[in-house]
């Protein structure tokens, strides 16, 4: 049977991501992997997200080849003009609860054919609540690292141990000892950003802690990671949730399982909410091997104009070539006119675009390093291509990812909580010149492990097959119980 055709008896899986770029991107890749395995997939986006995908991608034609693949939409409750970026993005959870949840429940009651399994974003408590109420098996998918999930899980333990709240800036380098597996290197400043709340009853901190505890219940926990990267932390997690499916890096896993022709098309496609500017690729073609530092702070980070200028000076003063993704909404406010030395320095050695085809960029031979916000998708994409990183985390899971990149995996430098031109210049030269050989050696080793895990017989390859079989068993059990 052609993998892209699925029989009438195939399980019907609904996939529901948080309406944010990183979440939708990785869950679309998971959806395509499950469609390749012959499952019927309904992918539920917010109206706003779906409109962005239609505007900037070929998502409908790309998924039309899979029999039974369907896109549905639902309102997220936010007004159209809401920026959906920066720390203000967290407001979306209130609207999802009040507006989206009742609509989702009605959809699940009436959808045909019946949904046999929901793969819900692990931060979407509304999806888990509705699934439980209607008796639909639910597997939760966390789009962040295992190390961050484990830290979220331990929030209540940190509070009980008196290690939270953080008492002030002078407290930031204090070691946290109540997260198993991280006792020797985790500092206050490395905790997920929500842990910086001065009140341990802070609503966001409590909600994330409670949602994460719920991730360890139910039918399983699905992670975009791999055993050779986060095995030590995963062993701790499995003492609380035995059924964990590690199936990442998803973008590499998908690329590996697709046919050669489909893989070529995938390289030209994206799941971006932004217009991709491919003009940076011909520019990269003209640069020497390993000479360019790629700079991107993802889809949600919002920088002040002062921070942008400091980064810019640091990049220009480093004397290195750079490709910088600077979104139009990247700055809170518009600063003064740009100093002439920055304009001239960029003309000589730089390229600035509003959005780049990141997987292709990181895979380009001219790239020698990645100055990143340490979002999990970006981190994995850099890991896969063997590109060392400078980490400047913005919020949420990014703080802890950056600590693991630098301290545990030896893949780069961590400059969290710092932003001035001298530091940026020093970090760029440290990554690209002074410590380049040791970082490239570590990054090459981990990239090899990533590729092995998604090939036949690898841990992620086998775990995806196990996930598919478990979902098929869910449908069988539902039919037998009727």
UniProtKB/TrEMBL annotation:
Single GO MF descriptor: quercetin 3-O-glucosyltransferase activity
PROSITE patterns noted in UniProt: UDPGT
UniProt enzyme class: transferase
Catalytic reaction equation(s): 7-deoxyloganetate + UDP-alpha-D-glucose = 7-deoxyloganate + UDP + H(+)
UniProt keyword terms in alphabetical order: Glycosyltransferase, Transferase
The protein's Enzyme Commission number: 2.4.1.-
Family statement: Belongs to the UDP-glycosyltransferase family.
Name recorded for this polypeptide: Glycosyltransferase
